[in-house]
Amino acid sequence: MSPGPEQPDPVPERVRSVAHTMLSSTHGRWSLARNRPALRRDLPPSEPALWMTLDLYRLHPEEAALDTPVFTRAATAVTAAAQLWARAGITHRATSPDHDTTLGAALARASRTSPSIQERFTRLLQSSTLDEIRTVLRPLLHQLPAGSRLDVSALAADFYTLQSPAGSRTVRQDWARAYTGTKARSRRTPTSESAHGKADPA
Fold this sequence. Notes:
Layout: H1 11-24, H2 26-34, H3 36-40, H4 48-53, H5 68-88, E1 91-92, H6 103-110, H7 116-125, H8 130-141, E2 149-150, H9 152-161, H10 167-188, H11 193-196
Parallel strand pairs: 1-2
């Protein structure tokens, strides 16, 4: 009997859900704001004290707790995304079928007015480890225009995936696809107010 199709890893979606709840619920935003000084400190996202600050027990599913290596990756991913949120002052908005707010798409939109973003984004795609990516990404997020929206929960899920041996390449490919796709759509869509009566929201 041939083996069935491999089941997808459910943990990235759990990481995304926990991060989204943390960033979108009233209590979650209050807790993050209260702990913003701790998140801004120069501590690695693998620091267990930060996990306690963020109440990351919610990463464990009800039916069974995650084992230590998986929980470590998941908690590190959520914490790394929360640190970038706290330091860059970005606004979380979950991506939707009508509006892609994933990292690649958000940076592509920002590159319209800040061409240097593409060069830094290329450097990001040449990085592979979480530490390298965080180092390049932190100043890159500061280049996003005021009022920009980013799906920080999707970023947390990406951070979980790229900690696996084959995950880094997959995540960087996804970022590049979102970036180039958004750039292509912006070329096909008029962005002047004279064409639409308002700026292109893509």
